[in-house]
Amino acid sequence: MTVRTRTRRILSELAAALRYPLTSVRRVTVTAIVAGLTYLLLILSTFPEMSMQMLGAGMHWFDDTVVLLTENVLATNGIFGIALIVSYAILTGVAVTNTVAQVQVGGVSSLSDLTGVLPGLIASGCASCGAGLLGFLGFAGALAAMPFHGDLLRVGGLVLLLFFLVRAGDPRECRLDI
Amino acid sequence: MTDDTMKRRRQFLGATATLVGLAGCTSSLPQSDNTTTPRSEPAQGDTRTGESGGSLSYASDETTGYGIDLQDNPILGSEDATVDIYYWTDYQCPFCNRFEQMTFPRLVDKQIQPGTVRFVVLELPNVGNASETAARMSKCVWRQVRDDNPGAFKRWHSTVFDEQEKPNTGWASKSNLLDITRSVDGVDAEAVQSCLKDEQGSLKSSVSGDINTGKESDISVTPGFILFNRESEKAGKIVGAQPYKRFESSIQKIQNA
After folding, report:
1. Nearest CA among B23, B37, B32 for reference residue B5
2. How far is B219 from B238, CA to CA, in rounded Å?
3. How far is A39 from A4, CA to CA, in rounded Å?
């Protein structure tokens, strides 16, 4: 298989995976909700100790916490940092919607075919949240030592998630090994 | 401080960090003989520029009941204040800048100026190599102004935060920080430059001291704050650039603790 054919197939599978959540209002809604929740989780995990303190003092601090931490990511990592988090949140929404579809189409047994999405979700989730959690786990300075203040870690997670989405393709079709 | 006292303090700090991390604030310190009681008279070695001089800054050689050595750390506020706030900062930290711009002015107006809170600045360089340079320069500036013009430190400190750019982009290089220092009234940039060169050992040890005190208090990120009731010796922790209202309620809790 030539590089060009292989690339075309990868892009085609990725497009199929990304297209599926847009095929009905319900799927769009589920994807948006999961993406929103993932964004909140990722933003809160950028400074977990502060998030816990603020939310521990009352849920009325929730919006302040999200705004403050979004501003902090913007100040520290810039637009690129925010874009990475938003991209990861959207892709997670897509992955979850596709996983649900896969189960609906093929039953729970089809999860064995989901070597595509589930490991990707877990591994890339660790990479994306990890940047914030390192400080919480006592690795002060680890984030600073990372290239681009943790952005590279997040890019790695994102690439991993894309890779597994490509493997899964459209959840209504049989997975093709590529 | 005896080993027992130190051990008790570490146990207390560990427990405090765990509880406060979840609940927001306040925990208790076992009663200790090593108590610092509020003083109505300045301690020996204190120098102060009064409010008439436009500053609440002063220097002290005291070690607080919490174990913070004030000798090399800038202080702002009344020495009779009920509550101490120990503030670990990094001049490269964007969230510290947010605290400086949004919360600190209100803290000065409503808590420090009226005499409720005494505020102590400590260094926790954790963002990049230039953070250490800035931390050492901060120590040099304080050493230079603490006896005759302590209020100049706050001007320098605020100016550096005003000039802050994105972390690790070179803005906090020694030469640029010295340029910023030259623009601050009452701070002799050449003396600061000499201090950086001649006092490397003691600067390193002073900054390390701040970092270690932070570690003992489970402060590993900036901005990090310990609130300490000087009478009851109860303490709590706040991390991040939380809004003024959060500080206000935490100070109140600590006051009543």
Report:
1. B32
2. 9
3. 35
For B98-146, how does the pLDDT look when each residue is reduced to its tens digit (9 = 90+)? 999 999 999 999 999 999 999 999 999 988 889 999 999 999 999 999 9
- Report yes or no: B6 and B36 within 8 Å, Cβ to Cβ: no
Other CB atoms within 10 Å distance of the CB of residue B111: 21
Who among A54, A135, A141 is closest to B242 (CB)?
A54
Decide if the complex's ipTM is over 0.85.
no
Closest to B228 measured CA to CA, from B122, B105, B120, B123 = B120
- Tally Cβ neighbours within 10 Å of residue B32: 14
Nearest to B157 by CA among B112, B213, B101, B210: B101
d(CA A31, CA A97): 6
The pTM is what? 0.78
* Residue B94 to residue A141, Cβ atoms within 8 A: no
A68–B242 CB contact, under 8 Å: yes
Nearest-angstrom CA–CA distance, B57 and A78 = 35
C-alpha B115/C-alpha B58 separation (Å) is 14
**In the block, which residue shows the tokens 């403050």?**
A68
Token representation of residue B16: 């405090």
Of A68, A138, A140, which has the smallest distance from its Cβ to B241's Cβ?
A68
Distance (Å) of CA B167 to CA A144, B25, B130? 9, 29, 9
